[in-house]
Amino acid sequence: CKEYANKDKRVKYIHQKNAGPDYARKRGVQESTGAYLTFVDADDYVDADMVQCLHRELSVRNCDMVCSQAKRVDDIGRIWDITKIPSEGVVCESIADAMRQFFVTRYISGSYYAKLYRRELLQDYSFVEDSLIGEDITAVLYALEKAKRVYIMPDAYYYYYWNEKSISHSGYTDRHFVSLQNYIRLRDDLLSKNYIDACYVAGFFAEYEMAVATAMSRNWKRDPQAIHVLQTDLKENRKEIMSNSLTPLYMKICIWMFQTA
User: Fold this and answer.
1) Overall pTM > 0.85
2) How does strand 65-73 pair with strand 150-161?
3) How many Å apart are CA 89 and CA 203, to the nearest integer?
4) Which of 224, 129, 207, 127 is nearest to 172 (CA)?
């Protein structure tokens, strides 16, 4: 990074004490001066022309946000396609359209990466600095609510390294509870706005809530407060969760067993 910054004055090198990925993103947005934003996680890589291709589509289609696809790379370098969408792509011209592509078709991922945003979509966003997992979902949904027009590309320029030892697959910590509270707050806010059927929103977030329970099983750290919040919330939203046809049967069984335990 220092070498790039020394050779190209458009590049800024910023050093700070480790405070989590979202604080780093927040600092990056604050320090940036361009009209567009994009994010690349530390272990991942992109095609050399990714930004050029996303910017072209954003300009030609007069969009506020362009979402491309990503490919997964495993430990031995094998590359896997993650999402298949129509070859012509998908245009969202309303918040309801965008939410449907996020929660129902799931053509829009809940990750920062593989997207180009007009700066104004995120310049006032309050990043979730204390969260450990799922902090990117909040930002993406925030941007989708502000965007007037979104284009989903069928092409993949981003390569996501699937690391089983990453923080999103690690054992439970107090920051998982912060993530859980963030999921519930975000879900309730979206449900109150009635963008799409409640079952899709409740079912989507139930899968992420269960990731908190899974983290406890990894290091056998039992958090009574988190368990109580999880069980209570799953019970209150059981009807909507179970009526979501997109939620896998095994997940519904796990949810049912957990909230009745």
Assistant:
1) yes
2) parallel
3) 25
4) 224
